[in-house]
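Handout, section B. The chain below has 208 residues.
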Amino acid sequence: MSATSTVALTRRLEVVPETKLELVLTLPDLHGTPLYQLGTRTTAGVLTQIVAGAHTSVVLAAPFMQAGFGLSTGPIAIAVEQALARGVQVEILGTRDGLATLDTHRLCRRSTSVLRLWEPSAHVENPQRLGSHAKFCVVDERIAYVGSANFTGPGLSTQLEVGLLTEGPVAQQIGEFWELACKTGLFVEVRSVVGRVIARPSEVVVPI
């Protein structure tokens, strides 16, 4: 490689933002304490923290959700409620049954923004199909979690789940993927919620 090419490559590498990665785990109680000593972080803790730090947007996706856990009650649900109260737009992707576990009135009781609920188009056409098995959360297109955990009790507290927390270009790519998937119809908006108003995507929603 010539000296000129080497300099050009070095400059390109210098302007590429660093991608940060952290291991994220959900571990069974019996084995959790010693394995968390590796310096890993918990799935529930990471999701709560990054949603709590959101400034403009949050996307949460998982095919399975469970009433009494995850997004319906507890620390993650509180973080989502507070994000909506700050004016952060929150979008949640799940199956019909999963989204039905959400207490949208509670999440939006202090909202100054919009909560949008999405389903995979294949699931809308045929509820027997998941349409998406992806589990992720992306915040402000700057930080993202991708892993195996559903937003259920076992997924967040009692069974082994492995994920990664990333900050930088990869998180931005995940955010861009989300936007493109929505625009191309891979995901379909099924409801939008502001305050106590629930509307179809085509309707104009006025806060009350």
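Note. The chain has nine helices and ten strands. Compare this with the example in section A.
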